[in-house]
Amino acid sequence: MEVCRIHIVAFLVTLYLSCFCAAHGWGIDGHLITCRLAQTRLSKSAANAVSELLPAYADDDLASLCSWADRVKFRYHWSSPLHYIDTPDNLCTYQYNRDCKDEDGVQDRCVAGAINNYTNQLLTYGTTASQYNLTEALLFLSHFIGDIHQPLHVGFTSDRGGNTIDVHWYTRKSVLHHVWDDNIIETAEERFYDSNVDELINALDKNITTVWANQAKAWAACSNTACPDIYASEGIKAACEWAYKGVDEGSVLEGKFMHVLLIDAY
Ligand code: ADE
Ligand code: ZN
Ligand code: ZN
């Protein structure tokens, strides 16, 4: 199961880093893309475990349920703070003990804590009478690995990861957080992939095995049970260097991010 987990995590991670893809966004497409790329890279034992844990209606397609965690936020109200990390404004650093808590200060209640928790739950797969709902653990973990790689899911506290910063994406009104969840991916998909998410997935898939092969190895490296702290540190750094950089309330944002993100995909 260790192997399963590493594969699941490593790949979902890899994917997101390279994922500047398309049709509905990190909201839906970002998760779809990362999970689709991940599932094809599972070891045999991990693939079997995932098949066994997915509900029959998913038809063996992990990607079809990778946005489930967003849909249950209202039913499972406790899960809302598990999608992100708020770090101190303008520090551009992340520390688990300082930052991984919810708004009431309850420790471990952030996306990094959730990744550790659901990874540990999944490690009980195959043991007698696991006390956990491992289907939900799989769906949460698959989703949170995507979220933690969206730079603004490890953002500043006062603007709630860019959720309170109104901007324009080209001529359209948007919110900075939404630009990075959805707009960049949507626009890239339309412009470069004929609005076809499968083409984007194919381009990423090809790059992962060719021009990004060395980087992909580094992305997959993890010597702990899970490595969310590495991703979160990279996330807030990327947020400061890219997502927040030069952006104010009312800024007009255009595709320069998209270009940087997509250039390798050719
Ligand atoms: N709510 C508060 N902070 C957030 C963040 N960084 N990302 C998403 N939702 C949030
Ligand atoms: Zn989420
Ligand atoms: Zn988001």
UniProtKB/TrEMBL annotation:
It comes from the Eukaryota. One of its GO terms (molecular function) is endonuclease activity. GO terms for biological process: DNA catabolic process. Its EC number is 3.1.30.1. Residues 1-25 form the signal peptide. InterPro entries: PLipase_C/P1_nuclease_dom_sf, S1/P1nuclease. It catalyses: Endonucleolytic cleavage to 5'-phosphomononucleotide and 5'-phosphooligonucleotide end-products. Belongs to the nuclease type I family. Monomer. This is Aspergillus nuclease S1.
